[in-house]
Amino acid sequence: MDFVYGPGKNHLFVPGPVNIPEPVIRAMNRNNEDYRSPAIPALTKTLLEDVKKIFKTTSGTPFLIPTTGTGAWESALTNTLSPGDRIVSFLIGQFSLLWIDQQQRLNFRVDVVESEWGRGADLDALASKLEADRSHTIKAVCIVHNETATGVTNDLAAVRKLLDEYRHPALLLVDGVSSICALDFRMDEWGVDVALTGSQKALSMPTGMGIVCASPKAMEAAKTAKSVRVFFDWNDYLKFYKLGTYWPYTPSIQLLYGLRTALDLLFEEGLDNVIARHSRLGKATRLAVEAWGLKNCTQREEWFSDTVTAVVVPSYINSADVVKRAWTRYNLSLGLGLNKVAGKVFRIGHLGNLNELQLLGCLSGVEMVLRDVGYPVKLGSGVAAAAAYLRNSTPMITSRI
Amino acid sequence: MDFVYGPGKNHLFVPGPVNIPEPVIRAMNRNNEDYRSPAIPALTKTLLEDVKKIFKTTSGTPFLIPTTGTGAWESALTNTLSPGDRIVSFLIGQFSLLWIDQQQRLNFRVDVVESEWGRGADLDALASKLEADRSHTIKAVCIVHNETATGVTNDLAAVRKLLDEYRHPALLLVDGVSSICALDFRMDEWGVDVALTGSQKALSMPTGMGIVCASPKAMEAAKTAKSVRVFFDWNDYLKFYKLGTYWPYTPSIQLLYGLRTALDLLFEEGLDNVIARHSRLGKATRLAVEAWGLKNCTQREEWFSDTVTAVVVPSYINSADVVKRAWTRYNLSLGLGLNKVAGKVFRIGHLGNLNELQLLGCLSGVEMVLRDVGYPVKLGSGVAAAAAYLRNSTPMITSRI
Amino acid sequence: MDFVYGPGKNHLFVPGPVNIPEPVIRAMNRNNEDYRSPAIPALTKTLLEDVKKIFKTTSGTPFLIPTTGTGAWESALTNTLSPGDRIVSFLIGQFSLLWIDQQQRLNFRVDVVESEWGRGADLDALASKLEADRSHTIKAVCIVHNETATGVTNDLAAVRKLLDEYRHPALLLVDGVSSICALDFRMDEWGVDVALTGSQKALSMPTGMGIVCASPKAMEAAKTAKSVRVFFDWNDYLKFYKLGTYWPYTPSIQLLYGLRTALDLLFEEGLDNVIARHSRLGKATRLAVEAWGLKNCTQREEWFSDTVTAVVVPSYINSADVVKRAWTRYNLSLGLGLNKVAGKVFRIGHLGNLNELQLLGCLSGVEMVLRDVGYPVKLGSGVAAAAAYLRNSTPMITSRI
Amino acid sequence: MDFVYGPGKNHLFVPGPVNIPEPVIRAMNRNNEDYRSPAIPALTKTLLEDVKKIFKTTSGTPFLIPTTGTGAWESALTNTLSPGDRIVSFLIGQFSLLWIDQQQRLNFRVDVVESEWGRGADLDALASKLEADRSHTIKAVCIVHNETATGVTNDLAAVRKLLDEYRHPALLLVDGVSSICALDFRMDEWGVDVALTGSQKALSMPTGMGIVCASPKAMEAAKTAKSVRVFFDWNDYLKFYKLGTYWPYTPSIQLLYGLRTALDLLFEEGLDNVIARHSRLGKATRLAVEAWGLKNCTQREEWFSDTVTAVVVPSYINSADVVKRAWTRYNLSLGLGLNKVAGKVFRIGHLGNLNELQLLGCLSGVEMVLRDVGYPVKLGSGVAAAAAYLRNSTPMITSRI
């Protein structure tokens, strides 16, 4: 694959797949194993127990599905809902749009609540709908915790508050693909019924494992949900959970060992410290954007995302040129603007196993690229702003003090 | 994972997941990459072109789906059929049974044609059905090329011959999970409409990629098939094929590089040589079984499988004890008997990146295990029989002559 | 490197370098690190402590030298002896010959005590020399514990006994390259003054680390030894040991982590169990050789080596053809006969991270090769003999019971 | 090794060992092999041929020795000189000092020509000595091309010019440890007689291979050199070169494959482009140092090193604190000041497989550290200065245009 090669490290700042830490790469560097031997179930048992911690749930039932985030979406929907069910779904960017597309193609009746791209979910609209829905025709509220296309984080606690306020029994289904393990996420406290993520996001693994967690209420709903499903059917998993062999079909041995190590690293750092690190990197990025005199695609601070920042370029620049230039000259991988914001924003993913100097290297690269494409940024300005903040907020590495 | 450890190599002889060759492990030993950079599409393009060769098709359209064999099944069915469609499906062992279960749960009307486990598909029954079906209500014939549970290989050419004889337009959907890249498989010549396999089988990779190939007729059927599908929808792939970016959602970067190397190794050895090697290993295994005085679960030579041999144990022995003993004493992983043949057979998988001495090591292990569990096999007898054959049939390693 | 490729695993049965266990390969799969950070000294400290256990010494001082076995030899000699010093050295095969060559080129006066190749060290000759040496002109006795060329193990306890009997103060320098971690070795009990091995032997790592351990008496000798040395000078190490930074020059980060894991695996299995396993594999190999009607190059049972067996071929066969054929047809790597026994013996290395079925696979391969080159061995005969013994002696894998 | 762990990548900016590119890590991720099979000699042959290119020699004879740079020094000296030989050696920093220490301990008569640390070799002194040495008692001139402790690059062409001017036959022995593959180095053109480097420096591999190249004149000298040597004796290599088996003792299989890939990467980038990249990174670093208001330890531009920069800290700061802080807070590995400049300088290694954004990340980290330890640097100032230069000088990545 000749043209991939460039000297030095690739600076991977797309919002997924993200950098894999060396210990996880090492853990996955192995031959296959018989997944029916006692070893793999024993390993799986620890994974199912520990993976609940990243959702902050004790009552949830997790599923480790050999699929992507798109498959995890499908698993969440088809196991809890029946064709024709009414659901409320928020359209705030490309990934919520894709989920809604899936919801529609799965034959749910989707009440799409649209916001301008760059804004969060319209919770007032949700309130109205909940209020009006005395007969509880709404079976589920579907929301993307963090919209990766625009860098918008929705307020899940507020959604739960509304549901409680109206005593509405709708299920709360949450796409946590670019949030879980990076943003504050509290499945039990927020009454999330299905939460899901993918291995290649903040867990910092390769793609290939969709991680879905279902509340007792979701598990109950699964008993009557009539959506057709086989590969994604939770019941097939539950059957094998009971047997203690865990797998209805062959899992990736490598991803299981990778997940074990990924979790170990998260717990060693401390999940709250991981979240604080993402908060730090997010804020530092935003300070740089501000210093560059550019706009964040996200319109209000309350929605700022700590995992991805979509940067709006001046109208005379095509953001795709930023991404291309970063790749072809500086070995820097940035995210493209998608759909409505194509050409208008480029994205800096700052999630997963990432530290301060990696981010500053990226920011210095973005500065050079911006100059390359004709935007008169002051070199060093964003780095300086970010560094000023990071120097005050970065903790010592606990294990090295 | 302490209790996995045993000195030396694990001898992996389950019929999947199988041994991964070192070059593939190396190729996958890498960080993530941006799958929207020019590199990954360029890589994918070569994969889609080259993967057709393992199906022996020039007209087929391949899909590399982040899923398992079970997902590949679902992809084959839902893209070509509509709920209520009548299909004929052969039940000859656990994996055909599971596929039939999936077919039924996906709401097709399944004409199950059952054979005794250990026998191949009942083609006479198929002939009757085809003959009777003047109005072409049968939309598809579903057949497992190689039933992994019993070590039975079905005669696909004969199936095609029947369909042609009766000029029946039914689609021919083939599970090639434990055959493709190991047994003779000719998609175009045999008029297979959808063929599929999984990465962890004869391709000798980790689990995680379902490889599905569709004939032009299958692609045409996909346009009108009404089965609900999103994650498995070929159209989503086709849209991105046209764009030249190839991926509707994030692929596993590692598996892509792994597949590149796996294909390179297959082509370096020569696909026909690979198939000949499997034929050699299969025959050697059967000679050993015979020398041990044991029965092959497969009742007739015409059905003998060159990828897996299910060995029937005497009635006073529980085959699960054979598997357990092999694992706990000799670091040898054998396949359990499943469902109807649970306790009655153990399975030796001899597929994928495997050579003669590995197999002989396994056979010598099986001999010791058989003695351990009380079967009075003559030690060395199976190895001798297998070696006598292998010594006459094993070619020189081309690259070393 | 095209012509290396052959399907399946390479069966590596040379007496070094040997198979590396997957956990060690994984541990070494890493970027470089600053060896002056606190991490590497902390790691090194554990290594220096734990490596003493493989020598069975508590009073010895270990050195982990970035070199091969040949360098380790040089380290042992130049740190303890002065040019012109008289030493007694046993010539029993190619590796003792090479060591003697080194001793001579380093300007020691070497009393070479030669045995026929295939016999052990002539201890009677040693006794005579010690008896005659009232004035203690002999400064050291140099002996190869296990001669890798002929598969002869010398009796170190007997050497110590002689030295004690004659109250002779000569240093006892031992090449343990193909013995330590595989054969019973007791540095303190046997009063060995310098013992050494290489990482690529029974430690089952890549080549590159010479491991040398010096008794207090050897350390004392080092203070006055006048041999010129810099790279191999223990004093440079000791200086850094005192500083707690440990390294006079840059170590291989990868080998340090590899050694950590290699030791962990040895201790998990239990060093005595490791030695018992080698004893088992050695005996099984010899039983096979006997069953084939071939002779062991080693003339008496007391010298039989449990790490390598040199098999004498009939005079009408060139043993190099055995080795060549094994490689070109069966992907089996055997050891050539060296020097005096070139063409006459081939060698089976059975040391390091190796188990019973691997060995049986090798033996079945040797049988086929022997037939290929014209020796009328009964296929399966050696495997049967080995298996009969192994089935009675192989323990359950502790971690899996 | 708990306390190593910190989130994200370690930023490795010590002047060795340096970052290993992923393709090299992958190439080394392998089991051992028989080094006497045809494969390893075939591989070695290509290495010996290609490694000459990094020295820019066609007439030199290369040796790949399982050792470190210190061992490579010893190989260069002992193979070409005899005890008592007079040599001229330049002391300009810690590594030249260590080499001189080795020279003295190897019993050469060393004319030490000392410069203040931070200055280059005193070539006037050399001129005087050469002029005075009509009888050619000086057998060799030993010079470190790039003094890693102070970041000083000596002018080898000028040394050659002096030798030629005085028609002096002394051998020219060059330590190229931190220069070869990074700085302009021309063995043949400059009449270098022995040049050497270590694998862990600009070749970007693990430690463990000393690479030594000898001119025909050096090879001639080796025939009469009386220094005692065995492990490092070139003759042992030459003997095996003639046999075509290449190795007098076991090489590291992993390092051989690693070197193959390392060379491939260098040639793919183009050796001159590699050197230009180092020049670019070196200059960018110096611009940052200047912007910080700090002094380069190197006193004159003519000596500036493009592989390592020693930065002088203000007298009220201990440079060890800079290094410690970088490690404990920012996961940044910098080089300590050594010996005379301990506490006074810290070092930024910018050699090997490294690109612009990696360096800028490092520089931003250094800025934060400087503030942490009390130096009032303006955050972003160094990054800005470096980036301004890099933006103008960094080429497009050829393979991606």
TrEMBL record, chains A, B, C, D:
Which InterPro entries does the UniProt record give? Aminotrans_V_dom, Aminotrans_V_PyrdxlP_BS, PyrdxlP-dep_Trfase, PyrdxlP-dep_Trfase_major, PyrdxlP-dep_Trfase_small, SP_NH2Trfase/AEP_transaminase
User: Which residues hold substrate?
Assistant: R347
Which residue ranges does the record assign to the Aminotransferase class V domain?
A: 49-322
Gene Ontology CC terms: peroxisome
Give the UniProt keywords, A-Z: Aminotransferase, Pyridoxal phosphate, Transferase
Query: Sorted alphabetically, which CDD domains does this protein's record hold?
Result: AGAT_like
Coiled-coil annotation reads none
Q: What is its EC number?
A: 2.6.1.44
**MF GO annotations:** alanine-glyoxylate transaminase activity; L-serine-pyruvate transaminase activity
Q: Which cofactor does it need?
A: pyridoxal 5'-phosphate
A GO BP term, please?
Answer: glycine biosynthetic process, by transamination of glyoxylate
Supply the name of the protein.
Answer: alanine--glyoxylate transaminase
- Keyword Transferase (UniProt): yes
Q: Tell me what organism the protein belongs to.
A: Musa acuminata subsp. malaccensis (Wild banana)
Q: Does the keyword Signal apply?
A: no
User: Which PANTHER family did the record assign?
Assistant: ALANINE--GLYOXYLATE AMINOTRANSFERASE 1, AMINOTRANSFERASE CLASS V
N6-(pyridoxal phosphate)lysine occurs at K201
Similarity comment text for this entry: Belongs to the class-V pyridoxal-phosphate-dependent aminotransferase family.
**Annotated PROSITE patterns:** AA_TRANSFER_CLASS_5
